[in-house]
Every structure is written in C-alpha cells, then in structure tokens.
Amino acid sequence: MAAFHPRHHKLFSHHHLHPPGADLRRLFHRLTIASSLSIICFSLVYLLTGCCESELTENSEAKASPRDFLVTGSGWPYGRNGTDPVGEGALGSGYPSLENSSGKAWTATRKLPQALIIGVKKGGTRALLEFLRLHPDIRALGSEPHFFDRHYARGLNWYRSMMPKALEGQIVMEKTPRYFVTVDTPQRVHSMSPDVKLIVVVRDPVTRAISDYTQIISKAPNIPSFESLAFKNHTTGLIDSLWSPLWIGLYAQHMEHWLACFPRTQIHLVSGERLILDPAGELGKVQDFLGLQRIVTDKHFYFNKTKGFPCLKKPEGSSKPHCLGKTKGRAHVSINPKVVLRLRQFYKPHNQRFYQMVGQDFGWK
Ligand SMILES: Nc1ncnc2c1ncn2[C@@H]1O[C@H](COP(=O)(O)OS(=O)(=O)O)[C@@H](OP(=O)(O)O)[C@H]1O
C-alpha cells in the first residue's frame, strides 16, 4: 500500500480550494512557458548543428563546389590553414584553424583575395604558398584558379566563391603564376582591388627555363630538344625569345605592366634561390609585407638532404614531416654548358634592367 504523504495531501487540498477557472488559467500559463522554452531550445540546437545558414560553417565545403574541377598540381597532399585537394583542413595540424577556433567559425565568410602570388612559373610559388599557409592569419586557396587570365568572364562572384572562408582579420590569398606574364591581368587585378598586395617569386631565368622545359618534356616526351627550341638559329646563336620558357624569364618586360598599375611598394619580390637556402628568412619578409606577425619561422623548417630542399618539420597532429611532391625540386634535363652560357649572355641586359626597375639585385650570373 502506498504511503500517504502529508505534503501531497496539502497540495491536493490546496488545488481544490481554487475555482475551476483559475486552474485553467494556470494550466494555460504553464503551457505557454513550456512551449516558449521548447522553441528556444529547438532554435539553439538548430543553430549549433549549423543547419541555419550554409555560409556559416566549414561543413558546407562537403557539398560540391565549383572549385571541384580545379587541380592543384602541388603534389602537396595536406592543407593547413586553407583549402587543399581533399577539402579544407584535412590535416589536424595544431595550427589555429576554422575547425578548431571555437566560436569564430560563425563569422567566416568568403572574401576576394587581399594578396596574390602572381608568379613566376617555376619560381617556387608552391613552396611559398604552402609555407605561408602555416600562418593562422592566412587563408589560401590550394588550387590555381586562373581567374584573371582564363576565367575572367565568370565574374568576381565566381572568383569569390572559389576562395576559402576566412574570419575577420585573416588574409585571403591565391597563387596563379601565369598572372605575371598575361598583359591584361594587372589592369584586371587593379579594378578588383587597387590595394591588393602582390608577391612575385623570381628565380634565375636560365634555371627557370630549364625547370619549365623539364616539366614540359615530362608530359610530352617526344617534343624537340631544349636547344632546338631555344635557338632560332643554332649556328649564329640567335635566341628565340618568344619561346615560352625563355619569354617568361624576361622579367623586366612583364614587370613593366604591373608597375604601370601598382606602386612598387605594393609588390614584394621573393628570391626563389633564397627561398630554398633560407626559407624562414624569405618568409619573415613576406609576413612583414603582409602586415602579419612573424609566426612562420625557422622552427617550422628542416633541410631534407635526400630531397635537397627545405621541408616542413612534423606539424602537430601529423605523424610525419612534409616535403613538396616529386614534381617540385626534381632533377633537370641536362643542357649543354655552351647553351647555358649563351642564355646567360642573352639574359644579362634584361636582368640588369629588371634589377634597376625594382631596385633589387638578385645576383644572377
Ligand atoms: N621547399 C621546396 N621544395 C621543393 N621545391 C622547392 C622548394 N622551394 C623552392 N622550390 C622550387 O620550386 C620550383 C617549382 O616552382 P613552382 O612551385 O613555382 O612551380 S609551378 O609554377 O607551380 O609549376 C621547383 O623547381 P624545380 O627544382 O625545377 O623542380 C623548386 O626548385
């Protein structure tokens, strides 16, 4: 038999002291409070699971995006603070990112880039971008969007949609080395943003041309030899300066177009050679140029003797150190030293003009 509790009895009796209308009002009042509370709880759950607005969370990356058709060509399988071939932040790196910066993800949006690595092809642009991506205040697109040179007709909204989401204060950037040599690009970049910061990685144009040719022949093994493409007339030593691997190295010519649109102070030049010898030193200057704290330092790098290039030390959350892929830092095709000498003579006045134009001597022989 259930025990009779005096309090239950009191409550029971108390209820019966009120008229039935008052009971109904109280019941209605309680129901109103209960339903308001459940609406608030439901809204909170809805917000926290990110269902309310696809722009709000990084999870929306899972849906197919126009970016999917792009290739990275980086040979760099991991993304840190930016997009990567398999989705943003695939690697838990321990560096602050949208995924683990509690609360901040709510304000992440896609913005047009504030900084661009515009060239040069084979200068070391991938290494620079991947190293910069270690910085928590940089959000970089992993692939090359080729917006200003190939996809300009798609418009700025398309371009913006390609960018990784960024928080307030983070710098969004991308690299497309072909921008440096496409004549329409400086004006187009300027009309997007006259304040954009531009970065060019330059490398000895002779080594750069051989690197370029090494890549071309790796994809099309039956193309003519470097020598036969580099010379209009081998006997007289007349150079074909319109052959793309040589034409790209006429830095002064391309730089002129950029300086017609942007002040020199808005363009930062990285030495491709120093990026290999002293990555932290070059990265320090780039971070200064971008107005960022020097967070990427020599602590992040080690020299991989087998590869012969600097690589990244084991990032937190990853099991191994990381080097760029096989197509970056590969052995070059061997070129007759006399041809190399002739090319050095050819580039000498062009290089001098470039040094004068930018006020920086890169010391190419
Ligand atoms: N850390 C590190 N690891 C590997 N490679 C490095 C690195 N730093 C600079 N480099 C040099 O980058 C050259 C490739 O340049 P890019 O990335 O600009 O090439 S591309 O335009 O994107 O195809 C690549 O050219 P090659 O040596 O001819 O392969 C490298 O010399």
From TrEMBL:
Boundaries of every Sulfotransferase domain copy: 113-350
Residues forming the catalytic site: K122 (for sulfotransferase activity)
Gene Ontology molecular function: [heparan sulfate]-glucosamine 3-sulfotransferase activity
Entry membrane topology: Single-pass type II membrane protein
Keyword DNA repair: no
Subcellular location: Endomembrane system; Golgi apparatus membrane
Keyword match Transmembrane: yes
Record-annotated disulphide pairs: C311-C323
Binding of 3'-phosphoadenylyl sulfate, residues: K122, G123, G124, T125, R126, R203, S211, K328, G329, R330, A331, H332
InterPro entries in the cross-refs: NST/OST, P-loop_NTPase, Sulfotransferase_dom
Cellular component, GO annotation: Golgi membrane
Enzyme Commission number, as recorded: 2.8.2.-
Keyword annotations: Disulfide bond, Glycoprotein, Golgi apparatus, Membrane, Signal-anchor, Transferase, Transmembrane, Transmembrane helix
Protein name per UniProt: Sulfotransferase
Species of provenance: Nothobranchius furzeri (Turquoise killifish)
Source taxonomy: Eukaryota, Metazoa, Chordata, Craniata, Vertebrata
The encoding gene: HS3ST3L
